[in-house]
Amino acid sequence: MSQSDRMKPQLIIALDVDTLEQARELIDKLSPEVEIFKVGSQLFTACGPAAVRFIMARGKKVFLDLKYHDIPNTVANAVGAAVSLGVPVGTVPKGGLSPSTSVPPGLFMYTMHTLGGLEMLKSAVAVGTKKAQEFGFEKPLALGITVLTSEAKKDDIAAIVLERALLAQAAGCDGVVAAVEEVEILRQKLGKDFIIVTPGIRPAGEKQDDQKRISTPAEAVKRGSNFLVVGRPVLEAANPLAAAQKILEEIAGMKDSVSRTKQEKIL
What we know:
Layout: H1 3-6, E1 10-14, H2 20-30, E2 36-39, H3 41-47, H4 49-57, E3 61-68, H5 72-84, E4 109-113, H6 118-135, E5 141-145, H7 157-170, E6 175-177, H8 183-190, E7 195-198, H9 217-223, E8 227-230, H10 232-235, H11 240-266
Parallel strand pairs: 1-2, 1-8, 2-3, 3-4, 4-5, 5-6, 6-7, 7-8
């Protein structure tokens, strides 16, 4: 994927389910529209690497959101192992490989807590890059976790997020995960090529659940988010595909609006 393609607003569906069969059903339903799926602690704890390999075998991209945070050597080795999940094994997951896929093999992106510090982040980025080169994969995007969207708003939260994002950038990370409230300041301070992934996305009218800092898809795109992570509003919908399509339409509409605004400013 080119840098310009990476910077276009895209949807990520969080597969926060308990079994590989549930994940398979959702991927089958959403595949016509969705290209990126997030594997977090819930699914990875339940199914392990099989969940990651299954998504890759279906020709989809994997966002491995395990929020690594430990001593530098441990996190670096964990990232190396995560990148290695793209290496073919002797068996093919149920359902087989997608015959028409053109998606490069390997992990698409992964997360680490910026609280782990500069050395931890740098070590992990270096190992992740090296492993991808060894296997001939595209380098996965390394993302730093700033402040969780479940954390209540504080007066100094924007400053905290910016400080942690600057640390991630200094360590060689490709971007960060941050709530929509901080996207504009991050974009101003860290540049147009720094990737911002925004969780806590809720279409207008959806319940807030346990998220304290949420946003609509349109607002996230308007402020400059590159990737929008959506879980329950799609997973719990009567028709997950229709719910995803509605979000994608909102993203596309706002993307066109932002593009027109930029053109008008040029003219």
